[in-house]
């Protein structure tokens, strides 16, 4: 056996080379499998609303609906399915931009108390509709360095999920506190907790995967795309942070995020 540069290989190094090659091939196969699963999922997810829009529009066009109330309810379905399609396309594009590393952070100081006032304000109507109490506990004057739009996307996703998967009359809360890592790096710890339906233990490791849902019907009926948490995880990692989840079935869930107080260039 001769190496490409002409130097003879020992038995041992050739075995190591083979092992390395096998590992590479396995990794390429794994990525290829993930890619084709993703394409299959995307097509399935897109086809469902397209088929619904087509079916209901055909019925209306065919003149098969005489009373106005039924016609309106069909139009509402067409409108809602179209909205879902829009969200789905937006999330798919966002995810592919992040995954191909075409997204960069545009960081500035974010004052967290004002930031959460505005996030909660945006969600107040949805929470009120379900009579859910929505609160934030944020130390005054605390700020962190981050990309405000992306932080907004993270917390809008987590808080909307918390509202969505909590029964009427429940509580959703975000608490913010200072923290540090073992190496002394200063961090901010965010906990988004709810008194909702919770997540079964066996599903916990998978909920950040693309299109993974504990209850497909519930996610669909509430307009979910199944991509929110995987976008959140990527955006947290772009900020060099971590996200974990704890949940008790029927009692509630908490998503815990730890983000550095300052981004690298300022340290
Ligand atoms: P979806 O659009 O379906 O909400 P996500 O990626 O945001 O997709 O979440 C994935 C799944 O994780 C959801 O379908 C739901 O089953 C579960 N999940 C997320 N957040 C919560 C929560 N706060 N309480 C209970 N289940 C949750």
Automatic annotation (TrEMBL):
Protein name: histidine kinase
Full-protein residues shown: 331 to 597 of 597
Limits of the Histidine kinase domain: 41-263
Signal peptide per UniProt: none
Location(s) in or outside the cell: Cell membrane
Native source organism of the sequence: Paenibacillus typhae
């Amino acid at each position: 056996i001769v190496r490409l540069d002409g130097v003879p290989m020992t038995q041992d190094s050739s075995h190591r080379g083979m092992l390395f090659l096998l590992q590479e091939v396995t990794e390429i196969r794994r990525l290829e499998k993930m890619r084709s699963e993703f394409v299959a999922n995307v097509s399935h997810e897109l086809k469902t609303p397209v088929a619904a829009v087509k079916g209901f529009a055909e019925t209306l066009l065919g003149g098969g609906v005489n009373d106005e109330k039924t016609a309106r309810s069909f139009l509402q379905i067409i409108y809602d399915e179209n909205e879902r399609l829009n969200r789905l396309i937006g999330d798919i594009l966002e995810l592919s931009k992040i995954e191909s590393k075409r997204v960069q952070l545009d960081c500035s100081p974010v004052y967290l108390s004002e930031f959460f006032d505005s996030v909660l304000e945006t969600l107040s109507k949805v929470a009120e509709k379900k009579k859910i109490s929505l609160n934030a506990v944020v130390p005054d004057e605390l700020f962190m360095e981050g990309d405000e739009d992306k932080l907004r996307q993270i917390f809008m996703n987590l808080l909307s999920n918390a509202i969505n998967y909590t029964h009427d009359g429940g509580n959703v809360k975000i608490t913010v506190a200072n923290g540090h890592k073992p190496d002394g790096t200063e961090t901010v710890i965010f906990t988004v907790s709810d008194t909702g339906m919770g997540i079964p233990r066996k599903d916990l490791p998978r909920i950040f995967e693309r299109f993974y849902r504990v209850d497909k019907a519930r996610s669909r009926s509430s307009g979910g795309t199944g991509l929110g948490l995987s976008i959140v995880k990527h955006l947290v990692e772009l900020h060099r942070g971590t996200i974990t989840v704890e949940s008790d079935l029927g009692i509630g869930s908490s998503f815990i995020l730890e983000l550095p107080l300052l981004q690298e260039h300022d340290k």
